[in-house]
Amino acid sequence: MNKADSNAVLDEATAWGQILRRDKQAEFFYGVMTTGVFCRPGCKSRLPLRQNVRFFETAAQAMAAGLRPCKRCAPATTEVADPLEQVLTYLEARVDEPVRLEELGRIAGLSPFTVQRQFRARMGVSPLQYQRALRAGKLRDALRQGGSVTDAIYTAGFGSSSRGYEGAQLGMPPARFAQGGKGELIRLTTANSQFGWLVVGATERGLCWLALGKTSAEAEASLSAEFAEATLKRDEGLKTLVEAALREVESGTPPGPETPLDLRGTAFQLRVWQALRRIPRGETRSYSELARELGEPKATRAVARACAMNRVALVVPCHRVVGANGSLTGYRWGVERKRRILEAECGKSMDSTLSGQRRLS
Fold first, then answer.
1. Domains of the chain by range and CATH?
2. What is the pTM of this model?
3. Parallel, antiparallel, or unpaired for β 321-322 and 285-286?
C-alpha cells in the first residue's frame, strides 16, 4: 500500500476485485499513476493495468498525491468535504515539517482556535501532538532497523538530537529504546489455537497485548516490537487469558471482570475500542456505522485508524468491523484470519454471510 493506506483499512486484493467488477458501492478511490487521474471503482472508463493503480480512502488523499479527478465519474464531487479530514491529510503529508495552527486554519477554512478545539475533540490530542506521534512512529521504525541513534533521529524528521531525546516522543531516551529498554515489566505467554499462535502480554494493570501469528516465535516477536522498551518475562499462568479470549469467539462467553485491560491510546481511540467491545458476537458494523454510534459521523477515517491500532485482538473485537458493502477490508493480523474468526462466531461461511448483510447469525 501507499502512504495514504498505511493504516491497512483497504485490502488491495479486495479493492482491485471491486474495480474489476465496477462496484458502485465501494467506498474508496483509485488513482492511475500513468495518466494522473483518480476515479471511483464504479467508473466506466477503460480499466487500467494493476501495476499502475494506487488506492486512496478519500478524494483529498488522491489530490494530495498529485492526481486530478476523472471528468467521467467526477469523484471529488461525490465526497462531502470534512475540514478535519483535510487537516489530517495535510499533517500526514508533512510529518517532517513544522505546521502552524494558522496554516491549518486556512486549509480547513476555520479559525486556528476552532481547528485546535475540534481536532482535539475528535482525535483526543492536539494537531501538534498528533504530528509528534507520527514522527515518533518513524523514529521507532528507524531505531528498530539498526544504525546510529543520531541518524534515526534526523531520518524521523526531528530538527535536532535534543528534540529526539524529549521524553514525550518515546517515553524514554532513544538510545534505551534502541537497546530494547528497561521500562515496564510485561509478562507474556504463547499458545496455539485454530486461528494460529496467540501471544498474550500483561502489565500489572491488565492485558496490554494479544496478537496472532503463524508461529509462536512470530507472535512473540510482535510483542517485542510493539513494546521494545519493556522488560519481558514469560509467565505460563497467563494461559487463562488466552483461554478466556478464545471462549469469547467460540461460545460468546465474555472475558469478564477478571480480565482487566491495560489499553493505552488517545481519548478517541479508547472510545472506539470500548464501542468495539459493545458489538454483539455474531454481528458486524461498518466503519461509518461505528462512527455514527460514537456521535462522530464524519470520523470514519479516524475510526478505521483506531481499529488498525488495536493491540488486543479478539477481546477488543476489531474483526467485527467490515466495509460498507460487507467486504472484510483490512485486518492487522490478516484478512483470511479475520474471515475464520467471524466464521467461528457465526458458525457459517462468510462468503454467503457477508453478501450485503450486517447480521451474522
1. 3-78 (3.40.10.10), 80-179 (1.10.10.60), 185-250 (3.30.160.70), 267-353 (1.10.10.10)
2. 0.53
3. parallel
CB 41 within 8 A of CB 30: yes
- List the one residue out of 4, 232, 261, 267 whose CA is nearest residue 122: 267
CA–CA gap between residue 41 and residue 205 (Å, rounded):
46
283 strand-pairing partners: 359
Q: Determine contact, residues 175/149, Cβ cutoff 8 Å.
A: yes
Cα distances from 52 to residues 34, 37, 49, 236, 269, in angstroms, run 6, 11, 6, 49, 34
What does the pLDDT profile of the chain (361 residues) look like in tens digits? 333 333 345 788 999 999 999 998 888 999 998 888 999 999 999 999 999 999 988 776 777 676 788 888 888 654 445 777 778 778 877 777 888 999 888 878 788 898 888 887 776 668 887 777 677 666 555 544 554 544 544 444 444 434 433 433 333 334 433 333 347 888 999 999 989 999 999 888 788 889 999 999 998 988 888 787 788 999 988 888 888 888 877 776 665 555 678 776 666 777 888 899 889 888 899 999 998 998 888 788 888 888 888 889 998 999 999 888 778 877 888 889 999 999 988 776 555 444 434 333 2
Cell of 281: 458476537
Active site (catalytic) residues: 39, 318
Cα 233–chain centre separation: 28
Nearest to 304 by CA among 285, 287, 292: 287
- The CA–CA distances, whole Å, from 121 to 84, 116, 197, 266 equal 11, 9, 38, 11
Sequence-distant (6+) residues with CB within 8 A of 313 are 198, 210, 211, 212, 245, 319, 332, 333
Q: How many CB atoms lie within 10 A of CB 14?
A: 18
